Amino acid sequence: METTLNVQGMTCGHCKASVEGALKKLDGVTAAEVDLAAGNVAVTYDEAIVTVDAMKEAIEDQGYDVA
User: What phi-psi label fits residue 52: left (phi over 0), alpha (psi between -120 and 50 degrees) or beta?
Assistant: First the structure.
């Protein structure tokens, strides 16, 4: 499954690494790719293992808002 989440507050490479790293630590997430220009992250995941809400929480724990 793939979804794209709109993330507010990402402005630099550190932001990109922080969001991607938090998502990739979740069981069930196989890929996460931030697009800073678009302000979103594309996530490939197994919906039987991880929920979109869990992904949003992981991003918010890094200090970013998910729209």
Answer: alpha
CA of residue 10 relative to chain centroid, distance: 11
Tell me the pLDDT tens digit for each residue of 12-28: 999 999 999 999 999 99
Give the span between the Cα atoms of 15 and 26, in whole angstroms.
18
Q: How confident is the model at residue 63 (pLDDT cuts 50, 70, 90)?
A: very high
pTM score of the predicted model: 0.96
Q: Which domains does the chain have, with CATH numbers?
A: 2-66 (3.30.70.100)
Give all strands (DSSP E) within the chain, no chain letters.
2-8, 29-35, 40-45, 65-66
